[in-house]
C-alpha cells in the first residue's frame, strides 16, 4: 500500500504575472517612501517663454515652458505678451504645503501641472519678442477681450 501521489495543480496565475505584480509593488513602495523632492536651483535667474500671463491688481503671474511659476509684484509691469522670452531675477521657493488636511492642496495642484517651484521675481526683462504667428493671433484676441472688459456695459 503505497501513498498515491496526486499531480500538483497548475496555478491559475502565470508565474511571470506574479513576478510583475511583485515588481510593481516594490517599485511603488520605494517611490512613495523614499521620494525626494527636487532641490532648488542654485541660480537666481530664470529664462522662459511665456505661455500664460495673468495680471490682477498689483501682481502678475507667469507660467512658462519649464517647471516654475513666476510671481511679480509691482505697481507697473513691463510690456510682456504671450510667446515672449523673458529673463527674471529673484528667488526660488517650494509651494507651501497644505496645512488643513481636507482643503485644497495647492502644491499637488501645481505638481499636476508639472510645476515644481515658485519664483518670486524682483526684476523681469523681455529678452526676445514673440515671433510666432499663432501667439500673435492669440495676443490680439486677448487684447480685444480686455478692451471689451474695460468698457462700461
Structural key phrases:
single chain, alpha+beta, 5-stranded mixed β-barrel, 3 helices
Protein described:
It contains 3 helices and 5 strands. It has a 5-stranded mixed beta barrel. The chain is α+β, with helices and mostly antiparallel strands and 153 residues long.
Q: Helical amount among residues, as a percent range?
A: 25-40%
Average pLDDT confidence is 80
Largest sheet properties:
5 strands, mixed, barrel
Strand percentage: 25-35%
For the biggest β-sheet, the strand order reads 1-2-3-5-4
The termini sit apart by: 102 Å
Number of helices: 3
* Shape annotation: elongated
Which stretches of 5+ consecutive residues score pLDDT under 50?
A: none
Query: Structural class, please?
Result: alpha+beta
Order of helices and strands: HEEEEHEH
- How many β-strand runs? 5
> How big is the Rg?
26 Å
Amino acid at each position: 500500500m503505497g501513498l498515491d501521489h496526486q499531480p500538483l495543480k497548475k496555478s491559475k496565475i502565470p508565474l511571470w504575472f506574479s513576478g510583475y505584480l511583485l515588481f510593481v509593488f516594490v517599485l511603488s513602495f520605494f517611490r512613495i517612501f523614499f521620494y525626494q523632492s527636487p532641490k532648488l536651483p542654485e541660480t537666481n535667474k530664470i529664462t522662459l517663454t511665456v505661455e500664460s500671463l495673468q495680471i490682477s491688481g498689483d501682481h502678475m503671474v507667469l507660467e512658462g515652458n519649464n517647471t516654475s511659476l513666476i510671481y511679480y509684484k509691482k505697481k507697473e509691469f513691463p510690456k510682456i505678451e504671450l510667446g515672449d522670452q523673458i529673463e527674471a531675477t529673484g528667488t526660488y521657493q517650494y509651494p507651501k504645503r497644505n496645512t488643513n488636511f481636507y482643503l485644497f492642496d495647492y502644491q499637488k495642484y501645481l505638481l499636476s501641472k508639472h510645476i515644481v517651484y515658485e519664483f518670486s521675481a524682483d526684476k523681469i526683462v523681455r529678452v526676445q519678442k514673440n515671433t510666432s504667428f499663432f501667439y500673435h493671433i492669440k495676443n490680439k484676441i486677448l487684447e480685444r477681450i480686455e478692451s471689451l472688459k474695460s468698457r462700461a456695459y
